[in-house]
């Protein structure tokens, strides 16, 4: 009540404008800049163009997965199978290109199709069999990983054709291909989520399934599309990773769902759905990228990096929930 | 002219039979009160009209068309709107997003990409609708979860009225409101009737029902037990039909006092 009377302060107004116009939580932008500044002070290697491109390159796979996580979580769902599906898709693409010897185009299609199919199965199980998304996607995490190991017989598939490797290692105009693909994907995803009916219905669905149903939105149908989309994006991430490391690695993407979900949450996605933005998620993914890159430059063991990511996830959700409680009557 | 007619509507949830063959008809521009005890099946019946629930058997005709097979979105297209007791709002979205949920106007971006939601148009129309209802909201760009109960209900009402409905179903619209707000809802119902829009009003507040309706249908044990002309009935009769006979003068007198 008091907030309706009192004129909001400067910070609050800037915060609101940032959320309304740019779909970005201001806090995450501040964290990104502060983190970058800290890394720049701590490591002489941090501030350079090549390191900047390194960060973007390392972020590209996670970034695509985080876009998938943003759609699913924004709709009130959950996809824990992102990392495994990414691994499966990469192996499927490598299998088509190397073992079957088909042209690279088919390998690209195989990656996205394998991911989309896994997502489609997730969606069917969630909406038709009424198994909770947590269980369905946790099960898919195991299923997809196992299938990736079966297809590749437990070994990485080497010897990808050059055209496929170009998707991961090519540098048109000096910019790595995965970065270009991430940026294009993010732009399209941002427009879809923020400006189309599909995107608005996605958030409404995550906000209140009852309200969406009453408004005439075909809730189950919409959820199936979102899970399929999520799987297809994981497939794209698998393609980028496989092409970059030049191998269909069945263990690729282990624990990536942790980083992807963390990036989405840091970016301002409400863990329980109803609020999400791709621009915010990209900031979140960059924060994760800078964090990992900085810790690597500072020669911190990768075990500690894993711990840092986990801690950041919990911290981000804590801050988000704290703000939600403070601000609204939801 | 009959706008809505239900025949023999049955609905059960597992072993629980909620509706045992309900008949109900509503004429265009008519205000019908639907009363009954808790668990009589009022809300379930309304949800079979809006399509949230699919009736197990029976027929539903609206405007001369059989609508039994249609989903909630298609029924809204035909002009059936409902204001739910829980308001069914997406609380993190703003006023315009809620009013236009499921029916967002679109435009072409740069004249090229179709299907882009026209937010400016939505905001403009939403503001117009809120103003027409004579309501005041702190800001149209705020999430509705930050509004008071009465303000949230204004948004729910605006959503129901924006798309020229033929029938508006209101489930306990006055239960959570202050005295002045109750009066404005009742005035709104009268205004809808004068515009030829039919209203089904579910309410436990029998005074409201008696003052604003043309007809009162009493639902009891999953059946339309009584169909009373409001002008020719009394509080006493309505109460006795709801509880099912016996001496109800004490209860009726209590209701009368409000």
Automatic annotation (TrEMBL), chain A:
Places the protein is found: Cell membrane
GO molecular function terms noted in the UniProt entry: transmembrane transporter activity
Topology with respect to the bilayer: Multi-pass membrane protein
Cellular component GO terms, alphabetical: plasma membrane
InterPro entries noted in UniProt: ABC_transp_permease
Chain ranges passing through the membrane: 26-46, 52-73, 80-98, 104-122, 129-153, 173-195, 225-247, 253-272, 279-297, 303-319
Keyword annotations of the record: Cell membrane, Membrane, Transmembrane, Transmembrane helix
UniProt superkingdom: Bacteria
Protein name from the UniProt record: ABC transporter permease
Organism of this sequence: Mesorhizobium waimense
TrEMBL record, chain B:
Keywords: ATP-binding, Nucleotide-binding
PROSITE patterns listed in its UniProt record: ABC_TRANSPORTER_2
Domain of life (superkingdom): Bacteria
Keyword Membrane: no
InterPro entries according to UniProt: AAA+_ATPase (IPR003593), ABC_carbohydrate_import_ATPase (IPR050107), ABC_transporter-like_ATP-bd (IPR003439), P-loop_NTPase (IPR027417)
Single GO MF annotation: ATP hydrolysis activity
Pfam family name, one: ABC_tran
Keyword Lipid metabolism: no
Domain ABC transporter: start-end pairs: 4-246
PANTHER family to which the protein is assigned, alphabetical: CARBOHYDRATE TRANSPORT ATP-BINDING PROTEIN MG119-RELATED (PTHR43790), SUGAR ABC TRANSPORTER ATP-BINDING PROTEIN (PTHR43790:SF8)
Identification of the protein by name: Sugar ABC transporter ATP-binding protein
């Amino acid at each position: 009540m008091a907030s309706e009377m009192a004129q909001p302060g400067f910070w609050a107004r800037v915060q609101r404008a940032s959320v309304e116009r740019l779909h970005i939580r201001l806090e995450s932008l501040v964290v990104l800049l502060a983190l970058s500044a800290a890394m720049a002070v701590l490591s002489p290697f941090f501030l350079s163009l090549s390191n900047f491109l390194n960060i973007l390159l390392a972020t590209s796979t996670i970034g695509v997965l985080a876009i998938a996580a943003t759609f699913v979580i924004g709709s009130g769902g959950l996809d824990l199978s992102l990392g495994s599906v990414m691994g499966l898709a990469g192996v499927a693409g490598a299998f088509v290109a190397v073992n079957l010897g088909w042209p690279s185009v088919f390998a690209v299609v195989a990656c996205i199709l394998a991911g989309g199919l896994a997502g489609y199965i997730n969606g069917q199980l969630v909406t038709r069999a009424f198994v909770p998304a947590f269980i369905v996607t946790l099960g898919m995490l195991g299923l997809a990983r196992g299938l990736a190991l079966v297809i590749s017989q437990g070994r990485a598939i080497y010897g990808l054709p050059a055209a496929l490797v170009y998707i991961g290692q090519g540098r048109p105009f000096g910019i790595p291909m995965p970065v270009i693909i991430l940026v294009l994907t993010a732009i399209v995803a941002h427009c879809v989520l923020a400006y189309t009916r599909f995107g608005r219905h996605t958030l409404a669905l995550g906000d209140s399934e009852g309200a969406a149903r009453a408004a005439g939105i075909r809730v189950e149908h919409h959820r199936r599309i979102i899970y399929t989309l999520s799987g297809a994006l994981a497939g794209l991430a698998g393609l980028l990773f496989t092409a970059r490391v030049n191998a269909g690695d069945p263990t690729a993407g282990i624990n990536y769902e942790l980083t992807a979900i963390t990036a989405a949450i840091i970016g301002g996605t409400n863990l329980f759905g109803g609020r999400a933005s791709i621009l915010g998620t990209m900031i979140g993914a960059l924060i994760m990228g800078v964090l990992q890159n900085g810790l690597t430059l500072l020669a911190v063991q990768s075990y500690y990096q894993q711990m840092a990511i986990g801690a950041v996830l919990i911290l981000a959700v804590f801050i988000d929930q704290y703000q939600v409680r403070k601000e609204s009557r939801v | 002219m009959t706008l809505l007619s239900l025949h023999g509507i049955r609905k059960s949830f597992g072993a629980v039979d909620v509706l045992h063959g309900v008949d109900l008809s509503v004429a265009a521009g008519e205000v019908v009160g639907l009363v009954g005890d808790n668990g009589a099946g009022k809300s379930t019946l309304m949800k079979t009209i809006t399509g949230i629930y699919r009736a197990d058997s029976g027929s539903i005709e609206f405007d001369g068309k059989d609508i039994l097979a249609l989903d909630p979105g298609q029924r809204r297209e035909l002009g059936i709107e409902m204001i739910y007791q829980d308001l069914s709002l997406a609380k993190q979205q703003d006023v315009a997003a809620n009013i236009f949920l499921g029916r967002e106007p679109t435009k072409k971006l740069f004249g090229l990409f179709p299907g882009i939601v026209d937010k400016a148009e939505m905001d403009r129309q939403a503001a117009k609708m809120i103003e027409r209802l004579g309501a005041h909201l702190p800001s149209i760009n705020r999430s509705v979860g930050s509004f008071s109960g009465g303000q949230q209900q204004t948004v729910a009402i605006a959503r129901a009225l924006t798309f020229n409905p033929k029938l508006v179903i209101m489930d306990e619209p006055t239960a959570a409101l202050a005295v002045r707000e109750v009066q404005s809802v009742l005035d709104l119902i009268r205004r809808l009737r004068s515009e030829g829009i039919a209203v089904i009003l579910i309410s436990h507040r029998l005074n409201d029902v008696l003052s604003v309706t043309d007809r009162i249908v009493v639902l009891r044990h999953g059946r339309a037990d009584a169909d009373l002309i409001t002008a020719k009935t009394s509080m006493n009769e309505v109460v006795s039909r709801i509880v099912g006979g016996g001496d109800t003068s004490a209860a009726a007198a209590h209701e009368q006092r409000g």
